[in-house]
Amino acid sequence: MHILFVCTGNICRSPTAERLAMAYAAERGLALTASSAGTHGLTGHPMDQSAATVLRQLGGDEEGFVARRISPRMAEEADLILTMTSRHRDAVLGIAPRRLRRTFTLLEAAELVRSSEATSLDQIADARAKHSVSTLDIEDPYKRAHEMYEEIGQQIADTLPEILRLI
What we know:
Layout: E1 2-7, H1 13-28, E2 33-38, H2 49-57, H3 72-77, E3 80-83, H4 86-95, E4 103-105, H5 106-116, H6 121-127, H7 146-164
Parallel strand pairs: 1-2, 1-3, 3-4
């Protein structure tokens, strides 16, 4: 399975999710690849330093990361697309409308897995019509206090295991 994580600049939230998903998958022996991109990706930039620090504290590694902007091809090639906000989800669907059943916000997907007890991607797609999700967005910590990066990093780290249960 390949998961594509999407945020705005691809230097804070989505690379944190990408690298933590890979670390968690490796720990659990899961067949998973992950990548990330931004709707307004700062192409060629490394991770934000505060985000990279938090990533390391949470058990991930930013080594070799380079930001990029999402393309229709990236979206088409992903088995699952997890965005950080509903606005990002809408942007992905604007360039890849056929990916509706595979595109969710990270918090939405995790809540749908929990509330529907889904065990497959098709089941969480079906659950979207039956279950209401109140919180969809993960805040952007960019250029805010380090504590905000820690809070957002922890939120991502706490949410990923729900998604990885599907693999």
